[in-house]
Amino acid sequence: MPFEITAYIPSVPAGVYQAVCTGVDIRTAKDGSGSQFRVWEFTLRDGTGRTIGASSSMQTTPKSKGGKWAAALIGHQPEAGERVEPEGKACTIIVAIKETTGYEYVETVA
């Protein structure tokens, strides 16, 4: 049976949103390299319950994405050996759309 192909419609359009970090997990790459990365989840505070996920490396330096996001969520740049808990922290996220795929992604956490 023939069917019509539809375009992807982002569940979170590009824009600035108030959100809460609702999860940070560690995953292992599926390429067999054994490398790990962080998967972040943000829930919008607009009453819709919409979430958006994002990933970062395991790096938490002041210039790395994960380091910048952690600092924004906990209010200071984390130090080596410090244990941080970003879940439950409110933030502002900027969602953008990738030109090549049309998929939404978290560009900035502030």
What does this structure look like?
This protein is mainly beta and 110 residues long. Helix content is 9%, strand content 39%. Strands 3-2-1-4-5 form a five-stranded antiparallel β-sheet.
Helices and strands in order:
Elements: E1 15-28, E2 36-44, E3 51-56, H1 65-74, E4 90-97, E5 104-109
Antiparallel strand pairs: 1-2, 1-4, 2-3, 4-5
Spell out the key features of this protein:
5 strands, 110 residues, five-stranded antiparallel beta sheet, 1 helix, mainly beta, globular
Q: What is the H/E order?
A: EEEHEE
Average pLDDT? 94
Percent of residues in beta strands: 35-45%
- Helical content, roughly? under 10%
Query: What is the β-strand count?
Result: 5
> What's the end-to-end separation, in Å?
48 Å
Side-by-side strand order of the widest sheet: 3-2-1-4-5
Q: What is Rg?
A: 16 Å
Low-confidence segments: none
Number of helices: 1
Shape verdict: globular
Class from helix and strand fractions: mainly beta
Instruction: Report the sheet with the most strands, covering strand number, pairing sense and barrel closure.
Output: 5 strands, antiparallel
